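User: Design a sequence. Structure:
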């Protein structure tokens, strides 16, 4: 039994060792470091395979990262500072994982050796270099943004906002970030055309309306009334182009159900007119059937409303129509009722299931149009969003 347990333990140990080695061989150095470090944390009996695995993985990935860092540094390009900073912070994070384990000695007396990189000054240099680079690029872009180039404003916002990764307050980058956001934002005024279709158009637009905040994104702001001291870039004109309601249609259909049903019984008489008896002396009877009839009156009511709203997007700076579309929506009222006259016992299962003797009232024309406005709202929101992506 002891021999069996020994071989089982040996198999498990070899499997774990093989897993670490496989990760190193495949270049998954961070995975190997995380695995080995977890195995070595808080244990007095530190196995050599994990100690050596951690040492090997750290040595190889540090050498690779430093080669990449030095290659980028030798190019002398200011745009490389971000990549150099990323490399250094990865090295620093790995070293922070390993530092608490040092000195690291295995249970067989193997002492691991780790050559740490002094990252503090290098990271500070990379932070300063990256921040200076993004600040200078952003300053060039903000000049074009102030002249009306919204694309430049948005790129400037990205440059200044990137600095926040390194410094919360670098020069006046926070103020410039806010300015770039303001300059890069499209402001759209949504207007509803006032046309009369013989009903309360104001209420129709109230049903159609939605909160501008539902549409706003980082770079778009929608308004239903002109904002104070804020330029408007586009106007989205929503016009009710069509509001048709059909007449109230009512179709009737009549049909009759008949059925033969049992209604009591008759006695069987002999040739002398006496009631026949069975072998037990009981009267002999037979079922009596009658024919019953029910008249069904089916009533089908239907009415339809069609609403069509046009959208025109105007570039107010250049007085140019940049987009035009139409969105339509149908609202259908349908009702079925069924009135029964006669003997209900004659009804088929189908007719019995259809029975509803009180028809619904037709909705008014305005109610149907307001319902259409309510249901078309989502389509309008989607259209407005897509017009300014």
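Assistant: Done.
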């Amino acid at each position: 039994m002891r021999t069996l347990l020994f071989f089982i333990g040996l198999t498990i140990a070899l499997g774990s060792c093989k897993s670490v080695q496989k990760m190193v061989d495949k270049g998954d150095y961070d995975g190997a470091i995380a695995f080995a470090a977890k195995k070595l944390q808080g244990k007095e009996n530190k196995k050599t395979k994990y100690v050596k695995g951690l040492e090997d993985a750290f040595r190889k990935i540090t050498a690779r990262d430093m080669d990449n860092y030095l290659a980028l540094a030798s190019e002398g390009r200011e745009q490389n500072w971000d990549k150099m900073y990323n490399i250094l912070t990865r090295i620093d994070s790995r070293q922070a994982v390993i530092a608490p384990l040092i000195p690291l000695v295995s249970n067989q007396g193997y002492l691991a050796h780790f050559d740490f990189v002094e990252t503090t000054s290098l990271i500070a240099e990379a932070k300063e270099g990256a921040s200076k680079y993004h600040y200078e690029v952003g300053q060039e872009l903000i000049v074009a943004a102030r002249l009306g180039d919204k694309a430049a404003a948005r790129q400037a916002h990205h440059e200044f906002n990137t600095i926040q990764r390194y410094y919360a307050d670098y020069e006046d980058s926070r103020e410039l970030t806010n300015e770039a956001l303001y300059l890069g934002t499209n402001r759209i005024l949504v207007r509803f055309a006032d046309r009369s279709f013989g009903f309360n158009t104001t209420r129709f637009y109230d049903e159609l309306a939605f909160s501008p905040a539902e549409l706003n994104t980082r770079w778009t702001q929608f308004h239903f009334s002109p904002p104070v001291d804020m330029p408007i870039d586009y106007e989205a004109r929503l016009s009710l182009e069509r509001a048709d309601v059909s007449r109230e249609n009512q179709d009737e259909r009549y049909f009759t159900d008949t059925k033969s049903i049992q209604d009591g019984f008759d006695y069987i008489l002999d040739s002398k007119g006496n009631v026949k008896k069975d072998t037990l002396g009981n009267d002999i009877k037979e079922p009596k059937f009658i024919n019953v009839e029910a008249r069904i009156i089916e009533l089908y009511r239907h009415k339809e409303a069609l609403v069509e709203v046009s959208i025109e997007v105007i570039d107010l700076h250049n007085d140019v129509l940049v987009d035009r579309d139409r969105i339509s929506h149908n609202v259908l009222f349908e009702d079925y009722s069924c009135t029964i006259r006669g003997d209900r016992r004659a009804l088929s299962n189908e007719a019995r299931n259809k029975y509803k003797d009180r028809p619904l009232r037709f909705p008014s024309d305005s109610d149907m149009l307001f319902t259409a406005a309510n249901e078309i709202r989502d389509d309008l929101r989607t259209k407005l969003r897509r017009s300014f992506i």
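Residues 2-117 form one domain. The two ends are 72 Å apart (CA to CA).
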